Prior knowledge:
By secondary structure, this protein is an alpha+beta fold.
Amino acid sequence: MTAPIPWKKSSFSGGGEGNDCVEVADLNPLIAIRDSKAPSRATLTFPADVFTTFIEALKQSSRR
């Protein structure tokens, strides 16, 4: 049996019940992403270094 995936919800999950966001899981060496409103649907997975580059690019674009 495999252990459950440790999903983490964004701290910027919006108002109400906080379901308007994405969740991420560290599946070393991959990062998985899913929609918190539909957790049983498909997930996206990326190599951790690619995900890190993506997040850094988002941070840079939000500073502009």
